[in-house]
Specification:
heterodimer; A: alpha+beta; Glutaredoxin; 5 helices; 4 strands; about 45% helix; B: alpha/beta; Rossmann fold; Ubiquitin-like (UB roll); 5-stranded mixed sheet; 23 helices
C-alpha cells in the first residue's frame, strides 16, 4: 500500500519524465542536426546536453533538434532559447563545452560569451 | 532515471487501432533501435485524440507536432527526418493545407483550439496503461484531498454547487443524486458506472475508458466516500475489448498501489471495484435494467419509484452515473465548484463531449463548453459538410433524441434548449445529415433500431413501436395512405405517455421531431409518392435524357441488371421494370445524361 507521501514521490518523479509533453515555457536547447551538424559531431553534443540535464535533474529544460541554419562552417551549432523567446547561439560545440553551457548558462543564467557566434565572428 | 529528449505518442484508441496503429508503433520501435535512438526517444501508447477521421495519429513532443493519416511507410520518414535530423515532416502535419507554419502543433490546430477538454483532459496525453502518468497529471490527488481534508457532506456540497448534471442523457444533477443515496440508512450501498454506451455512432465513454481509465476509478472511489459505499461495479459492453482490457489493468494497478481495497492511503477508507460485462442489449443502458443485469438476471427494466438511490442493486441504495460524468468529478474536487460552474450556461454547467459522425469532415470526438452553438460545432470544429453539400439537420441523442434543423443552427447546446426544440442532449452522439438524407428514412432507421432492441416487457414499446415501424415502411416504399401521418403522431404520443422505461418513452422522438421540422417530406412521400432527397428507392426512377445521350454504351457495361437497351446513334433507354436502382449508370455516364427523379 502506498502512503500519501509515496504517491507524491511518484507524482514528482513521473512529472519530470513527462514534463516535455506539457511544458512549452521552459528553456529549450536546440541542436542543429542537419547533415553538416551531424558530420561535425552534433550527436555527441546533444547527448552531452541530455546527460548533464538529467544528472542535474533540471526541469523545464527540453532538448530538441533543428535543421541547418546556414552557418555550416561553425557547426555544431546549439541555440539556447529562453522563456521569453530570446536566443543565444553557441558555435563549434563539443561535449565538454556542452557541460559548461549547462552549468553556466542554463543553471546560473550567465552566457558563455566566448563560445557564442558573435565571439567566433570577431576572431576572424 | 532515463531522460528522453522526445516522446512519441501513438494513438491506441479503437479508431486508430483499427487503422493499424499497433503495427505502426512496432515499426517505430524497430526503426528507433536501428537508428540507435531508442535511448533518446520514448514511444508512448495513448488514448483517443478525437480527430478520428484523420487517424492513425502520432504526436511528437517537445515540438507537439501532430502527424495524421500515418502509414507504416511514413514511419521511416518520421524517424529519419524528424527524430534523427530534427526536420518536421510537413506533409503529414494536421491541417497542413492551411498552414505554412512549421511550428504547427497540437494547440495550433483549429480542431483543438476551440475545445475545452475537461473529461478528455488526459486522452491523448498520457499512457492509459501506466498509473504513474495519471498520477503525474494530478491523478488521485482529488481522492487524497477528499479522504484527508473533506467530509462526505462537503463532497456532496461541492458536487451540488458545481452544477454537474448526468452526462448519460437525462441530465439529472449529480450532487442531488449522491445526496439522496447518502441520506439512506443501510448496511450496504453501491456505486455503479454506466459504460453501456449503445447509441449508434456514439463513442465518448469508450474513449474515456480507453484513454483515461483511472479518472473513472478515482471518481467512483470519491462517490463511495460521499455516500458511504464500499463496493462498486462498472457495467461495460463486451464489444469494447480495448476499454475492458485497460480498465482491468487500471483496477489491478490501483489495487497494487492501495488506491482500491482496504485502508486506502492509510486513511481507513475501504472501497473496491468490479467489472461486469454487458452482452450488448441497448435496454441495459437504462438504469434499472442495468442493475437487474448486474444482479445476474435478464436485463429488463422495472417501474420507478423506488429510485435506485433508495432501492437499487440488491435492494440497497445505489448511485449510477455515466462514464463522462465520473470523468469530471476529480477535476471539480481539485479546482472547486466555482471554477466548474463558471463554464457553460445558467442551467447546464461545464462541458459536453460529442461524437461527431455522419456527413461531416472531422469525424471524431470533441469537448466544448455547454452553450456552444451547433454551428460552431459543425462548421468551426467539425470542418463543415464534405463535398460542398448543404447542411440539413443534426441528430442528437441517438434513438431517443431528435433532429435539429438548419433554422436552429444557432441554438446554444445545453440540456434545456435542446429539449425546447424537440431533441435532447442524450449521451452525446451527433450525426450530421446533408441534403442527400431523407428524413423519413432516418426516422425509419432509428425506429428499426428500437424495435430490434425493445426488451418486450411492456406492450406500448413491444407492439406500439412495431406498428409505427410498419407505417414508416409503408410510407418509404411508396405505399403510404392518407391518414398515416396522423396515425403515426397519435401512436407516438401514446407510446411516450405509457411505456415503462426510458427506452420506450423516448423511442417515438425521432419520428416526432422529423414530423415537426420536415412534415413536408412525409407529405411528399404519402401524397405525391416522391422522395425529395432521392433516397427511398421504390419512389425514384433513373432516366436517360435523350438529348444528352451520345450512345457511348458505357452505362450498359456497368448495369448489373442488363436493363439498359440501345444501339449506335440511338439514345439509350432504361427498362424501368427491371431496374434495381443502384445508380451505377448515373455515376458512369460521362455526359451526365442520366438523372434520378
Amino acid at each position: 500500500m502506498k502512503s500519501i507521501a509515496e504517491l507524491d514521490e511518484i507524482r514528482k518523479k513521473t512529472q519530470e519524465q513527462i514534463s516535455l509533453r506539457s511544458n512549452t515555457d521552459g528553456i529549450r536547447v536546440i541542436v542543429g542536426m542537419a547533415t553538416c551538424g551531424i558530420a561535425a559531431g552534433a550527436r555527441p553534443v546533444m547527448k552531452a546536453f541530455m546527460e548533464e540535464i538529467s544528472k542535474r535533474n533540471l526541469q523545464n529544460v527540453t532538448v530538441s533538434m533543428t535543421g541547418c541554419v546556414g552557418v555550416c562552417r561553425l557547426e555544431p551549432v546549439v541555440e539556447i532559447m529562453e522563456k521569453d523567446g530570446s536566443r543565444v547561439t553557441y558555435v563549434k560545440m563539443t561535449a565538454e563545452k556542452a557541460a559548461r553551457v549547462v552549468a553556466e548558462h542554463i543553471v546560473n543564467g550567465k552566457v558563455c560569451i566566448d563560445m557564442t557566434i558573435g565571439a567566433a565572428e570577431e576572431k576572424k | 532515471m532515463q531522460l528522453y529528449r522526445a516522446h512519441m505518442l501513438v494513438c491506441a484508441g479503437t479508431g486508430c487501432t483499427s487503422s493499424n496503429s499497433t503495427k505502426i508503433m512496432e515499426e517505430m520501435e524497430n526503426l528507433l533501435s536501428s537508428n540507435k535512438l531508442d535511448n533518446e526517444v520514448k514511444i508512448v501508447k495513448t488514448g483517443c485524440f478525437g480527430l478520428c477521421a484523420e487517424g492513425p495519429i502520432v504526436v511528437v513532443y517537445p515540438e507537439g507536432a501532430m502527424y495524421t493519416r500515418v502509414s507504416i511507410d511514413d514511419a521511416k520518414e518520421i524517424v529519419e527526418e524528424h527524430l534523427l535530423k530534427g526536420r518536421i515532416v510537413k506533409r503529414l502535419l494536421a491541417g497542413e493545407k492551411e498552414a505554412e507554419d512549421i511550428s504547427k502543433s497540437l494547440d495550433g490546430v483549429e480542431f483543438f483550439k476551440r475545445q475545452t477538454r475537461i473529461a478528455l483532459r488526459n486522452c491523448g496525453r498520457i499512457n492509459p496503461e501506466n498509473i504513474d502518468e495519471y498520477i503525474a497529471f494530478d491523478g488521485y490527488k482529488a481522492l487524497e484531498k477528499v479522504l484527508t481534508e473533506m467530509t462526505p457532506e462537503a463532497v456532496i456540497d461541492t458536487m451540488k454547487k458545481s452544477g454537474l448534471r448526468g452526462r448519460g442523457g437525462g441530465g439529472f444533477p449529480t450532487g442531488i443524486k449522491w445526496d439522496f443515496a447518502a441520506k439512506q440508512v443501510s448496511d450496504q450501498k453501491y456505486v455503479c458506472c454506466n459504460a453501456d454506451e449503445g447509441d449508434p455512432g456514439a463513442f465518448m465513454d469508450r474513449s474515456v475508458l480507453e484513454g483515461d481509465p483511472h479518472s473513472v476509478i478515482e471518481a467512483m472511489s470519491i462517490a463511495g466516500f460521499a455516500i458511504g459505499a464500499t463496493e462498486g461495479f462498472i457495467y461495460v459492453r463486451a464489444e469494447y475489448p480495448i476499454a475492458v482490457k485497460r480498465l482491468q489493468l487500471a483496477i489491478e494497478q490501483a489495487k497494487e498501489y492501495g488506491l482500491l481495497g482496504d485502508n486506502i492511503l492509510g486513511t481507513g477508507f475501504k472501497f473496491d471495484l468490479e467489472i461486469r460485462l454487458g452482452a450488448g442489449a441497448f435496454v441495459c443502458g437504462e438504469e434499472t435494467a442495468l442493475m437487474t443485469s448486474i444482479e445476474g438476471y435478464r436485463g429488463e427494466p422495472r417501474p420507478r419509484p423506488p429510485f435506485p438511490a433508495v432501492k437499487g442493486l440488491w435492494q440497497k441504495p445505489t448511485i449510477l452515473n455515466n462514464v463522462e460524468t465520473y470523468a469530471n468529478v476529480p477535476v471539480i474536487i481539485l479546482q472547486g465548484a466555482d471554477w466548474f460552474s463558471g463554464i457553460g450556461t445558467e442551467k447546464s454547467k461545464g462541458t459536453k463531449v460529442f461524437a461527431l459522425g455522419g456527413k461531416i469532415n472531422n469525424t471524431g470526438l470533441v469537448e466544448v463548453p455547454m452553450g456552444t452553438t451547433l454551428r460552431e460545432v459543425v462548421y468551426d470544429i467539425g470542418g463543415g459538410i464534405p463535398n460542398g453539400k448543404r447542411f440539413k439537420a443534426a441528430q442528437t441523442g441517438g434513438p431517443s433524441g431528435g433532429c435539429i434543423p438548419t433554422s436552429h443552427l444557432d441554438t446554444p447546446i445545453d440540456y434545456d434548449s435542446l429539449i425546447a426544440i424537440g431533441s435532447m442532449m442524450g449521451s452525446g452522439g451527433l450525426i450530421v445529415m446533408d441534403e442527400d438524407n431523407c428524413m423519413v428514412d432516418i426516422a425509419r432507421f432509428f425506429l428499426e433500431f428500437t424495435v430490434d432492441e425493445s426488451c418486450g416487457k411492456c406492450p406500448p414499446c413491444r407492439i406500439g413501436t412495431k406498428r409505427m415501424l410498419e407505417i414508416l415502411e409503408r410510407i418509404t416504399t411508396g405505399k403510404g395512405e392518407t391518414g398515416d401521418i396522423d396515425k403515426l403522431e397519435l401512436l407516438a404520443k401514446n407510446i411516450k405517455a405509457s411505456a415503462l422505461c426510458g427506452l420506450g418513452q423516448t423511442a417515438p422522438n425521432p419520428v416526432l421531431s422529423t414530423l415537426r421540422y420536415f412534415r413536408d417530406e412525409y407529405e411528399a412521400h404519402v401524397l405525391d409518392k416522391k422522395c425529395p432527397a432521392g433516397v427511398c428507392k421504390s419512389m425514384l426512377q433513373y432516366t436517360i435524357d435523350a438529348s444528352k445521350c451520345k450512345s457511348c454504351g458505357l452505362c450498359t457495361k456497368v448495369c448489373p441488371m442488363s436493363c439498359i437497351i440501345g444501339e449506335k446513334k440511338v439514345p439509350y433507354v432504361i427498362d424501368q421494370a427491371k431496374c434495381a436502382k443502384c445508380g451505377a449508370c448515373m455515376e458512369k455516364c460521362p455526359f451526365k445524361a442520366i438523372s434520378k427523379v
